[in-house]
Amino acid sequence: LSGLDPAQPYFQGTPIEVRLDKTDAEFVDVIHTDTAPTIPYLGFGMSPAIGHLDFYPNGGVEMPGCSKNAISQIVDLDGIWEGSRDFVACNHLRSYKYYSDSIIYQDGFLGYSCASYDVFESGLCFPCPAEGCPNMGHYADKFKGKTSNDFVKLYLNTGEAKDFPLWRYKVTVTLSGKHKVTGYVNIALYGSGGNTKQHQVAKGTLKPDNTYTSYIDAEVNVGTVTKVKFLWNNNAVNPTLPTIGAATVVVQSGEDR
Length: 257
Hints:
Layout: E1 2-4, E2 29-31, H1 38-41, E3 53-57, H2 70-74, H3 80-104, E4 112-113, H4 117-122, E5 153-156, E6 167-177, E7 181-191, E8 194-195, E9 199-206, E10 211-218, E11 225-233, E12 244-253
Parallel strand pairs: 1-2, 2-3, 3-5
Antiparallel strand pairs: 4-5, 6-10, 6-12, 7-8, 7-9, 7-11
Pfam family, one: Lipase
EC number: 3.1.1.26
Keywords: Cell projection, Cytoplasmic vesicle, Disulfide bond, Hydrolase, Lipid degradation, Lipid metabolism, Secreted
């Protein structure tokens, strides 16, 4: 039984006979996308974990792409009717759109078990454990029976628009060069499953021999990495023409560690 952002008003905090609960089926998975308090933030979705697996994409409160201005939201590619509806309840309705995408992407929407979204963003819950990570949505039941905890909260990030799934990687870069510079470093991954756009992994003072780590949510499942593109920019005209490079780049996939 899959709960798509179960309703908060009149249901949150009520007895289990009234609302969705893990006792309602052998396996209950829940996608939370609109958990802000109804008053005063007009959140429509329930915030507590109530299933066997509870997924909180993007933290469960504000979904990427839902803060577009009213005109661009209403006159949307999906049409005026869907655009108008999304303007009123965009976060709430993301739950079914994620579920719909999850049917197509069997390897997508990996949820990382974590204490909170902030801890997930820090990278402390990366990579997936030995038994793997469950997939949010249609294939969540592949994880049935693999967890012994009463409630499991799972976190992940999604894209702003269809297609929504993202794949998480840890990228560690050790710099080479002779002098420190100020600027940013971008990394793009190339692999058997496709190529990513550039993702920023460091910004500010860049020092040779220092190591910088970042977690990137890629728009494709790269598969086996075949090439890494390293780019840097110092954001300024510098007459000394400083150069900096990558001594090593280490890429770790969250899925298979």
